[in-house]
Amino acid sequence: MGKSTFQGGIHPYEGKELSKDGLIQTVMPKDMVVFSMSQHIGAPATPVVAKGDSVKMGQIIGQASGFISANIVSSVSGTVKAIEPRLLSSGNKATCVIVENDGEYTPVEGLGEDRDYQNLSREEIRQIIKDAGIVGMGGAGFPTNVKVTPKNEDDIEYIIVNGAECEPYLTSDYRLMMERPEEIIQGLRVLLSLFDHAKGVIAIEDNKMDAINKIQYLLEDDRDISVKKLKTKYPQGAERQVISVVTGRKIHSKMLPADAGCIVDNVQTMIAVYQAVCKSTPCMSRVVTVTGDAVAKGQNYEVKFGMSHAELLEEAGGLKREAPKIISGGPMMGMAMYDLDTPITKTSSSILAMSEDQVAEFEPTNCIRCGRCATVCPSRLVPQMMAEAVERGDMDYFQKIHGMECYECGSCTYVCPAKRRLTQMFKKARRAVMDASRKKA
After folding, report:
1. Which of 59, 218, 341, 440 has the most CB atoms around its CB within 10 Å?
2. 277-284 average pLDDT score
3. Model confidence band, residue 3 (pLDDT cutoffs 50, 70, 90)
4. Can you tell me the distance from the alpha carbon of 330 to that of 305, in angstroms, rounded to the nearest whole number?
5. Cα–Cα dist 278/161, whole Å
6. What pLDDT was estimated at residue 299?
7. What separation in angstroms does the CA of 125 have from each of 118, 251, 300, 419?
8. Quick one: pLDDT at residue 256?
9. Alpha carbon of residue 416 to chain centroid
């Protein structure tokens, strides 16, 4: 096993006390439910229903349209009212299937039936995961069936459940580890059955000792699964950092975790695997944290995909004061929202409402060459030099100094005394390099 932490990183205000103590509550969508066909990395799903069609809860309404793609399943029953582009919380538009919820939640045949994964072949398990539309629910949205189908099964030595949840304010994974740990463990056992040489590791930051203790107790006699306690530090939950800390192995931007003998899945993804394989229930909902000093009460909610952020915030009691900034996700890697009338998707982790927009108050100045950005960078890059390359438009040099290894965690921006918006610069630069590469190809 590796060390308990990695080199670099930061310690921002955690804010988890605002929402971590209440039990997960279930909320239901109202009349119209909007299902984006782009809830994952890769090609958007293709609608397989038409306006006027009746749909049932658990029915596939969007078919994966490529190797890197994922099915979309209806979380309600009702009638398809439209198929049209709609705005997402990212600010982009995507094709969406709009279903009028009849409130009956009539299921497809067999939904919820118990199933013993030990009686299924590996191919059957992978097909169930694919049919269920499961993707990485930690934020990346990578189709899980692709992840668990590596080129060589024998090379996989670790299946890591990422329970670090290092992003400030977010507590949905913590609540799931406290309330549904058996499902996490059983989902991990399902995936372990796909590989002959793999061991399971559940990696959790040490600010969640009650979750660590609970899961360790449940695994007391388990020889195949262990718990790895991680030092609380941001971005401990980044895939590269988790792999490094758990196994001592390193990966870079041109590698997959499977190249290091690892598969890494988020807590909610693991529960989705359990639900699909053992309970015949496809991916239709997730737990979302509603938090921030502007919300009436911080809480975690089980939310059906397609429900709007505005509806969820209303169900949560709304705002107790004006919120000049509302973020989808956490403060480090989330995106500011300018319209709450957008659907919750598989990668929607949080609604974070802040009473102050601290970023807007800062006026960036020139770099003072203090070197703090390089000290905290978890990828061991030199953000100062990367920023200089971006400012003069030298994308070749940006790549030469490994700028594409940045995964936009925001640590450099957080510590910069000059308040330079480094992460935003690198995000644009990386997109420009990738766009140029695609055009060249």
Report:
1. 59
2. 98
3. low
4. 19
5. 18
6. 97
7. 10, 28, 30, 49
8. 92
9. 26
Distance CA 62, CA 74 (A): 9
The band of 85, judged by pLDDT with boundaries at 50, 70 and 90, is very high
> Hey, what amino acid is at 179?
E
Distance, in Å, from the CA atom of 266 to the CA atom of 70, rounded to the nearest integer, reads 17
- Averaged pLDDT for residues 133-144: 93
The structure tokens listed for 301 are 């909610």
Q: Is the peptide bond before 168 cis (omega within 30 degrees of 0)?
A: no
Cα 26–Cα 308–Cα 178 angle in degrees, nearest 5? 30
Can you give the pTM of this predicted structure? 0.95
How many other C-beta atoms lie within 10 A of the C-beta of residue 365?
11
CA distance 136 to 234: 20
- Rounded Cα gap, residues 286 and 303, in angstroms: 6
Contacts of 160 (CB under 8 A, 6+ apart): 200, 201, 202, 203, 242, 243, 246, 262, 263, 264, 265
Cα dihedral 80, 84, 87, 92 in deg (nearest 10): 130
Q: Which of 227, 171, 181 is nearest to 203 (CA)?
A: 227
Cα–Cα distance measured from residue 82 to residue 99, given in angstroms and rounded to the nearest whole number: 7
Average of per-residue pLDDT across 388-406: 97
Dihedral sign for Cα atoms in the order 440, 402, 415, 247:
positive
For residue 39, give the nearest of 81, 90, 83 by alpha carbon. Answer: 90
The reported pLDDT for the residue numbered 359 is 78
209-218 helix and 181-192 helix, angle to the nearest 10 degrees: 60
**Strand 93-101 and strand 32-36: pairing?**
antiparallel
What does DSSP say about strands 78-87 and 54-55: parallel, antiparallel, or unpaired? antiparallel
* Closest of 279, 284, 276, 278 to residue 58, by C-alpha: 284
Exposed, middle or buried: residue 427 (CB in 10 Å: 0-12, 13-18, 19+)?
A: middle
**Is the pLDDT reported for residue 358 higher than 80?**
no
**Residues making up the chain, counted from first to last:** 441
CA distances from 370 to 46, 128, 384, 389, 416 (A): 50, 52, 9, 18, 9
> Quick one: pLDDT at residue 91?
86
The alpha helices in 106-262, defined as continuous H runs, are 122-131, 144-147, 172-179, 181-192, 209-218, 239-247
Token pair, residue 263, equals 């598969």
Q: Report CA-CA distances (Å) from 366 to 333, 369, 387, 395, 410.
A: 24, 9, 11, 21, 18
Burial 100-139 (b: 16+ CB within 10 A, else e): bbeeebbebeebeeebebeebeeeebbebbbbbbbbbbbb
